[in-house]
Amino acid sequence: MDNSNKIIEFTLVYNKHKQAVYNYVLKMIGNKMQCEDIVQNVFLKLFENLDNIKNKSSVNFWIFSTARNEVYGLYRAKKVRVDQFGVADTEDIELESERNLVENYEMKELKELIMKELDSLPEDQKDVYLLKEYGGFSYKEIAGISGVSEDLVKSRLFKTRQKLIKRISKKVA
């Protein structure tokens, strides 16, 4: 592939997937600066390896598998669980009305509770949940990204949801 075609193809792929990859990585690590670094590394690796990807329809799987590996590499390097919610998160609430403020605050609390509970689950369950709920991927796509069967993805997702419901209902009650 000549260089101009490679740049065009990369640009199209980048524009299509950048937001989903960013959201996925951010949910996994909770740090915007580290997230930006990882996303940049993922797309740099994509550019370097674009010629080696034979099946162009699998680029999506390649990108998210690489993102997942980069996140796990960060965890292994630091051997630290990253706090998902920093002080800066509270600044993201829009102040339109008192009702919206209450609704936004309750939704934010629920998301924080879910993410805290997700952090206590095994990485494979957390990963499947985030890919499905925040990435919007199908079971088949998640299976391809994770390198496991579709049935195992469904099982992990079901178990993760059941654990979250059980744990959150105890805390809310």
Q: What's the arrangement of secondary structure elements?
A:
Elements: H1 3-29, H2 32-49, H3 59-78, H4 98-119, H5 123-133, H6 139-146, H7 150-172
Helix pairs in contact: 1-2, 1-3, 2-3, 3-6, 4-7, 5-7, 6-7
Explain what the structure shows.
- It is a single chain.
- The protein has 173 residues and is mainly α.
- It folds into two domains: 84 residues, Rna Polymerase Sigma Factor, Chain: A (Orthogonal Bundle); 73 residues, Arc Repressor Mutant, subunit A (Orthogonal Bundle), CATH 1.10.10.10.
- The chain is built from seven helices and no strands.
- It is globular and about 60 Å long.
- The N and C termini lie far apart (60 Å).
- The relative contact order is 0.10.
- About 10% of the residues have low confidence.
Mean pLDDT: 78
CATH architecture name of the largest domain: Orthogonal Bundle
Low-confidence stretches: 80-96
Q: What structural category arises from helix and sheet content?
A: mainly alpha
Number of domains: 2
Outline type: globular
Computed CA radius of gyration, to the nearest angstrom? 18 Å
Treating each run of at least 4 consecutive H or I residues as one helix, how many helices? 7
**Describe the biggest sheet?**
none
Q: Report the span from N to C terminus.
A: 60 Å
Short structural description:
The protein is mainly alpha-helical.
Characteristics:
2 domains, mainly alpha, Rna Polymerase Sigma Factor, Chain: A
